[in-house]
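Form P-L/3: holo structure prediction, ligand pyridoxal-5'-phosphate.
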Amino acid sequence: MKTQEYINTAENELLHTYNRFPLVLDHGEGVHLYDTDGKEYLDFAAGIAVCALGYGNRAYTEALKKQVDTLLHTSNLYYNVPVIEAAQKALAASQMDRIFFTNSGTEAIEGAIKAAKKYAYTRDGHAGHEIIAMQHSFHGRSLGALSVTGNAHYQEPFEPLMPGVKFAEFNNLDSVKAQITDKTCAILMETVQGEGGIYPAEKDFLEGVRALCDENDILLILDEIQCGMGRTGQMFAWQNYGVKPDIMTCAKALGCGVPVGAFFMTQRVADKSLAPGDHGTTYGGNPFIGAAVSAVFDQFEELQILSHVNEVAPYLAEKLDALVEKYDFLTAHRGMGLMRGLVCTIPVGQVASKALENGLIVITAGSDVLRFVPPLVITKADVDEMILRLEKTFSDCH
Ligand SMILES: *Cc1c(COP(=O)(O)O)cnc(C)c1O
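OUTPUT (holo model):
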């Protein structure tokens, strides 16, 4: 089949929930992707911050193949070794005490919400607690996750959603304070807002929220689904601030392409939280995802991903700053590590589409942000090449 035939067929089969770019991807190598016509693309999207190791990392793919030949699935009625090892590595990296593996980010959020509600229920002897979430946040598409996603446009058709959710303004401590009541059980936020437009939490804000939580026995839930797993130069973004959550969610790069998420908690929370019968999953934490997560953590160590990110990210930041200086239609640059956004006054969707013609994959965030979430293994030479292809794209857009 030719590209256009694939696209036409897909549009007749798949539910139309995405306006996809007209690109049929076939394979990847390093930080490059190739379409079914053999055209090469430099990938600065990583499957939406998922493919942290890029493509074709042999140690990772061999670990997956080995597990495929050994055992894929057992259910959670039994133990399995790969997930025990994966949990050990994830807990060591996060300084958390307990982990529950899910199949996606949105399910990790669901679990985190239930964990917080159960904690408050055990403590107070009754239900009816509230959660404070942030405006312009994104936590996923299931009804629970949608209920804490601060975007009226996403929510409206599906109302009524989960009750007991209040929204505060991100990076505004007074706004959070104003939403606290004696029913508040948790404050939930992304450490760096992703879909909303790449907004890092300010240090004072995060410290202030932590203090509010401590004063009122409220749980701090940090969503590290996009900003976690080394993207900001620490394994988890909150480690840059020294502000530890009580519950944390992770997904995207956790499996580097194998669908897996997780929610983590401290022992203090676990002691009063989910118990047998309260939560479960058929697939979650099976041997296959265990092998994947384990291999990801091993590769992070082997390739010293964190120090690599800390070396390349300032270079990318410098180059993006220079673009803001150079072009009138670029008004700001925000971000941390290898999670960056350029604010554009020209339509960002058009830039992302044009970039494909120049062999560059970038995505958007919010309504006016070009988002850069490349594989964490990119080099400075890849950054130079990206800037070249991006500037060519800018000249095409004018
Ligand atoms: C992607 C994302 C989610 C949802 O994860 P899925 O795997 O798509 O369900 C939740 N929170 C944040 C911050 C995300 O970036």
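COMMENT: The pocket of pyridoxal-5'-phosphate is lined by residues 104-106, 109, 138-140, 190, 194-195, 223, 225-226, 251-252, 261 (CB under 6 Å).
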